[in-house]
Design a protein that fits this description.
Layout: E1 3-4, E2 8-13, E3 16-21, E4 26-30, H1 32-42, H2 47-57, H3 62-78, E5 82-83
Antiparallel strand pairs: 1-5, 2-3, 3-4
Helix pairs in contact: 2-3
C-alpha cells in the first residue's frame, strides 16, 4: 500500500485538487478523478479498494479504473509525492 509523502499538502474542491510539495516547492493541479484517488490514498485505502470505488463512482469498467490508477500512481512516484511500501519516508 502506498502513502502520500509527508511533505505533501492538498486542497480538494469540486473541480479537482491543488497539491503542494513543500519539500520541493512544487505545485500540481489534479482533475476530479485524480483528486478522488489522492483522497483515498490519504485515508489509507488499498489499491483494489480504490479501483472499485473509482469504477463505481465514475461509472467506468474495472480495467479502465485499474489502468488509470497505475498511471496516476506512477506519476505521483515520479514526482516523489508518494512513498513506496516499506519506505521510511526518506528520499
Amino acid at each position: 500500500m502506498y502513502r502520500v509523502s509527508e511533505g505533501v499538502r492538498s486542497t480538494h474542491g469540486q473541480d479537482g485538487a491543488i497539491v503542494l510539495d513543500v519539500r520541493q516547492g512544487q505545485m500540481f493541479n489534479l482533475n476530479f478523478v485524480g483528486s478522488r484517488i489522492l483522497e483515498l490514498l490519504e485515508i489509507g485505502e488499498p489499491e483494489p479498494a480504490i479501483v472499485e470505488r473509482i469504477s463505481q463512482e465514475f461509472r467506468v469498467d474495472r480495467e479502465t479504473a485499474e489502468r488509470d490508477l497505475r498511471e496516476f500512481l506512477e506519476t505521483l512516484r515520479q514526482h516523489q509525492l508518494l512513498e513506496e511500501p516499506g519506505s521510511n519516508g526518506q528520499h
